[in-house]
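Appendix B, example 12.
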Amino acid sequence: MYSAIGDYKNAAILILIGMMLDSMDGRIARMLQVESDLGKELDSLADIVTFGVAPAMMAYYSYFSRFGIAGMAIAGLFPLFGAYRLARFNINAVKSSLHYFTGVPITAGGGVLTLLTLFHGKMPHDILPIAFFVICFLMVSKVKIPSLKEIPLPKYGIIITAFLGYAIYIVFRKEHHRFPYFIYVAIPLYISFIGYQLVRSKKKSKRK
């Protein structure tokens, strides 16, 4: 909805909050011992919407809308390729390695597309469409992407926290009244989660 009204800053912030939550949900489910097949399926559906549909909407309204129906079809490729990537991952989850992903995960692809769309006006005009098609290809490719699963910190933690700090500065300087205030909950929650993971990893290392 933010994308539809041209408010790409808030749209990007909400997608990045989704990345924060995506890095937490699996760990929290394991901590609370509430993992289930239903939860895994819901997680995949949420990933398609948050990192497939939402970034594609940003790209469509900011760039591809000028091409009419063709632009709609092009923008629709991103969630389509992302859904294929997720489906392939789900059926091969048992065989997947901790050291690498096969193809770019939709979370990373959606995050990159979001940032490129957000800063589209400050970059050469052709970078966004080129990156769009490259990311689509990489998601369904069999390229080996290094995994961060063995790192004790939540995925994307440092990058997202730094970006959100920058986003707060920009938005509060120019558009305070349009800022999604629930980020006041999201950021402290995520920083606390990172701190908890650090303490937990230190305790595990001492036991060993």
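Strands lie at 100-102, 144-146. The longest helix spans residues 37-62.
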